[in-house]
Design a protein that fits this description.
The protein is mainly α. It has one domain. It is 86% helix and 0% strand.
């Protein structure tokens, strides 16, 4: 009796995975991608203007921005590597904003940190991960 029940559970799990893949991209993924590419562009221009200090900092920020842009476009194609880069980027941006808020007590950084933390928590949901290839 339990063998049949386990088979039905396994079968329904497979059906859910196929339905999730057939469903395509979730609107939240597209919204997160737009926000992250916007943040990437802002940070790249800030690095080019010299807002981050020395030349070493400028080039490291530009390298991270390049990696993040590639990750966003990979996530838009529902690739696992793109999702992983954007998820890590959300976590790093959120933790960096929490750090800046702790140092400066500027409310903007707290609000952005909480928003990006919500993005991270959305990206790690099972429904989002099942749609990736």
């Amino acid at each position: 009796m339990s063998d049949g029940h386990e088979f039905r559970e396994l079968e329904s799990a497979e059906v859910r995975k196929l339905q999730a893949r057939a469903g395509g991209m979730l609107p939240g993924i597209a919204g997160i991608a737009m926000f992250m590419i916007f943040m990437t562009i802002l940070n790249a221009f800030a690095a080019l203007r010299g807002s981050f200090g020395t030349a070493a900092a400028k080039y490291s920020v530009l390298a991270v921005c390049t990696l993040m842009a590639a990750g966003v476009f990979g996530m838009l194609q529902l690739k696992k590597w793109g999702w992983a880069i954007v998820t890590a980027g959300c976590l790093l941006l959120s933790s960096g904003d929490f750090y800046i808020f702790e140092r400066t007590k500027t409310g903007f950084f707290l609000i952005r940190a909480l928003l990006v933390l919500v993005f991270f928590l959305y990206l790690v949901r099972t429904e989002v991960r099942e749609r990736l290839r």
